[in-house]
């Protein structure tokens, strides 16, 4: 599937640059600072960048604005890594550019991604990261993926509002698409998500959350 000309995300904007999904009634980022949250939850939660090495595969549920991709690219520096994200309701390049104005460091690095996205490309390079965004409902596209991630960013909207991206069957697919020793991190500590990930073969633990959130979750597979 190639990228549609029109946005498929249904958005409201808060404070000019914070996208809020009207479909899911949830913001794309923490109100307390998306880039810092990404670094705390998804990078540190997966022990990145320390584990990065050539060919390292990151996978993500929920591409959104691509902020997590940009943070990975900044963290990876010259190390060639791979990033695959699953997204059902892609934002347009103009919407993504608007959201990134809140994060000057990310905005400054986003040029090649935004140019590719505006051309309708879902495979592109950002810094040393080979990126691919697989469009469609992750419940259908992830089972068909032939890859295996060394680290997962689980970044759906809140489990209460977007339960389809956190269900037990999908978490089992996350487990099935994880390399030996691979890890996951997510901002949520919701019980049903943690149980689904444990059933998928991860040793799940709690860690301090970002900016006043008591807990996030992280884990690794044997
Ligand atoms: C919190 S946002 C992701 C934020 C993103 N990681 C970023 O860096 O901007 C959650 C994303 O999950 C996507 N999503 C929700 N349900 C989905 C599904 N069933 N399959 C694939 N993507 C889905 C939404 O469209 C949204 O882009």
From TrEMBL:
SUPFAM superfamilies: S-adenosyl-L-methionine-dependent methyltransferases
Pfam families the record matches: Methyltransf_30 (PF05430)
GO molecular function term, any single one: tRNA (5-methylaminomethyl-2-thiouridylate)(34)-methyltransferase activity
MnmC-like methyltransferase domain sequence ranges: 119-220
Top-level taxon of origin: Bacteria
PANTHER family attached to this UniProt entry: MNMC-LIKE METHYLTRANSFERASE DOMAIN-CONTAINING PROTEIN, SLL0983 PROTEIN
Protein name stated in the entry: FAD-dependent oxidoreductase
